[in-house]
Amino acid sequence: MSETKRQVQLTGGSSFAVTLPKSWAKRQGIREGSSLIMRITDDGGLLIYPEERQPQKTFTEIRLELGPNVGRDIVGAYLYGYNTIKIHSYTSFEEDELVTIKRVVRGLVGAEIVEEAPNKIEIQVMLDPEAVTPEKVLRRQNSLVLGMVDDVAKALMNNDVSLAKAVAQRDEEVDRHYFTLVRVIRSAIRDPEIGRRMRQTPLSLLDLRVAAKFLEDSGDQAATIAREILGQKEGRPADSLVEEFCGLASIVIEMGPEPIEALLTGDAALTLHALSLRRKFQERSSQFRRMLSQAPLQAQLFLIHSYACLDRICENMADIAELGAPIAGRSTN
Fold it and tell me: Quick check: is 246 in a domain?
């Protein structure tokens, strides 16, 4: 980012004035009578925008060669902000390649296949970043994750294989929201005007991005527990162990929307309450691990992995809460 220096002048005896860099004014189409918007930043600086500023040029099109990582490449192009993604193959697509591409596209909000030929597929992304409210996406992600934790506990308690399968599949929806949020945040960072209209600073966008990643990881952890239930071959663990595990899950569920609201509002009280629930989880975990150490080996192998996933979810939620009011979560020792 280039810098320029200007001397402050006193005009009319009471007003301060500075001149605008001529090269910048010409690029922005500023002339006599043009209106400028000024915004004070968090660090005390001053940002100046033309009122009729045109959006910065977006990434329009990218061509991808078909390869073993085509799914990852499509997601990467989507997150980077490309609106048209063309996939080319030197031979006709195999059936499994088409299945992979279509599955990935279904997981990306606003993405559609608009052209399909034997060796070429064109994906169009029709997602207006300014039509997406990051806070709503984050709240929806959080609600989905908490629902997954609740359902996975019920699936374990009731030995409900169908519910466990549904939880594993729901992780795709959490990922969809994550990808949407990352694309929108990258667009806002690339074009500060978008962030300004969203009323988001670069720092708040960074915090939202980190929180979304914590939630995406939590969805993965809940889906892993569901798959553990689906893959359980031997007998069910003792009821006392299952009840204790579900008790730990209830502490995570008790956090509810507090970590997200702590982040979005900066409310230190919400942060402290979320952290107190994290400590409550850790204290109760000691009892669960003691009980688990006395259980048959098969039950230990099944539940210790599931417990590690649940502990990770709880830690992620506490970390999100600390993003909003980090000083509130620090020890004074």
Answer: yes
Amino acid at 259: P
Q: Distance (Å, rounded) from C-alpha 163 to C-alpha 158? A: 10
One domain for residues 301 and 268: yes
The gap from C-alpha 125 to its chain's centroid, in whole angstroms, comes to 19
Judge if 271 and 294 occupy the same domain.
Answer: yes
Rounded Cα–Cα distance for residues 154 and 169 (Å): 16
Spacing of C-alpha 81 from chain mean position: 16
Paired tokens of 111: 């993405």
258: in domain: yes
| Residue 194 falls inside a structural domain | yes
The CATH number that applies at residue 94 is 3.30.110.60
Q: How far is CA 191 from CA 253, 261, 267, in A?
A: 37, 26, 29
Q: Is residue 206 part of a domain?
A: yes
Answer yes or no: do 244 and 148 share one domain. Answer: yes
Count how many domains the chain has: 3
Could you list the residue range(s) of the whole structural domain that residue 15 is in?
9-50
Does 224 share its domain with 169?
yes
Q: Which positions of the chain have pLDDT values less than 70?
A: 1-2, 41-43, 52-59, 234-235, 327-333
- Strands (E) across the chain are located at 9-11, 15-17, 36-40, 46-50, 61-65, 84-88, 111-117, 120-125
pLDDT tens per residue across span 139-179 = 999 999 999 999 999 999 998 999 999 999 999 999 999 99
Q: What is the CA radius of gyration of the chain?
A: 25
DSSP state of 13: T
Please tell me the distance from the alpha carbon of residue 127 to that of residue 134, in angstroms, as a whole number. Answer: 13
Residues 120 and 136 both lie in one domain: no
- Using a 10 angstrom Cβ sphere, with 0-12 exposed, 13-18 middle and 19 or more buried, the burial of residue 167 is buried
278 and 313 together in one domain: yes
**What integer pLDDT is reported at residue 2 of this predicted model?**
61
CA dihedral 175, 208, 147, 235 (to 10 degrees): 70
Query: Which residues does 256 contact at the CB level (< 8 Å), separation at least 6?
Result: 146
pLDDT in tens, 171-217: 999 999 999 999 999 888 887 778 888 888 888 899 999 999 999 99
